[in-house]
Amino acid sequence: MAKREFNSNAEIVFTCGEAFHYKGEMMVEEHCLVRVLSGELKVIHADKTYVFGAGETHLFPRNQLATLVKYEKEGLPYKAIVVKLSNTDLKDYYALHPFKPTIALSGKIARFGKSPLLDSFFQSLLPYFELSNKLPENLSKLKITEAITILRTLDKHVDEVLADFSEPGKAELTAFMERNYMFNMPMEKFSYLTGRSITTFKRDFKKAFHTTPQKWLIQKRLELAHHLLKEQRRKPVDIYYETGFENLSHFSFAFKKHFGYAPTQIENK
């Protein structure tokens, strides 16, 4: 599950999976443009799963919950280049290229097909990861601007995503949590994504569910795990992470405490 990251600077990252199978969860506050170089990346949202192979590029929007599963493919580990498009860089860009979003598209991953523009852009970044020092800031700015320009050329709707600097609005709490309880995120992230302070989030949660967020999340995740084990005949080692548990031992302990028997004994129940 280890991974390495080589940074030219904070905004342009080369990531290389040392393991051949890696799982992790992600909620970034910046848009990320990702080119998979080798291996395969599965991005699991609450309602849709995306799979990206070598040579494919996608734009991962900010403030979205997802589980990432990185696989080896054809004997090669997962490798990718990630270009972060920060709000600061985007605001600087759109100050010179004014655009006012009229529709909200920020919740969807944008997949980009084969493009000589994207190919040449990512190829130009590879030598930077061999530098012993950080990439000069002015050069980094040029590459970020180049990335934004290419995206605007390839997708006429991308401005609606990149130029939207609004923060999450106050979401309907019950529906949001029912859709996203399996993501193992800090409570502060859940509160932020529902447009609440942590104090208001806990208060509204108690009113909606008549229990604490921690107790409710554990119960929901264990119920999902029980369903996957019992009805789909899956193994504990294959489902503990996607049901929101950090490791197998924690999952097994919580499962036995709640149901009275170990997850490996479910076939006998």
Automatic annotation (TrEMBL):
<dbReference type="InterPro" id="IPR050204">
    <property type="entry name" value="AraC_XylS_family_regulators"/>
</dbReference>
<dbReference type="InterPro" id="IPR009057">
    <property type="entry name" value="Homeodomain-like_sf"/>
</dbReference>
<dbReference type="InterPro" id="IPR054015">
    <property type="entry name" value="ExsA-like_N"/>
</dbReference>
<dbReference type="GO" id="GO:0003700">
    <property type="term" value="F:DNA-binding transcription factor activity"/>
</dbReference>
<keyword id="KW-0804">Transcription</keyword>
<protein>
    <submittedName>
        <fullName>Helix-turn-helix domain-containing protein</fullName>
    </submittedName>
</protein>
<dbReference type="Pfam" id="PF22200">
    <property type="entry name" value="ExsA_N"/>
</dbReference>
<keyword id="KW-0238">DNA-binding</keyword>
<feature type="domain" description="HTH araC/xylS-type">
    <location>
        <begin position="171"/>
        <end position="269"/>
    </location>
</feature>
<dbReference type="Pfam" id="PF12833">
    <property type="entry name" value="HTH_18"/>
</dbReference>
<keyword id="KW-0805">Transcription regulation</keyword>
<dbReference type="GO" id="GO:0043565">
    <property type="term" value="F:sequence-specific DNA binding"/>
</dbReference>
<dbReference type="InterPro" id="IPR018060">
    <property type="entry name" value="HTH_AraC"/>
</dbReference>
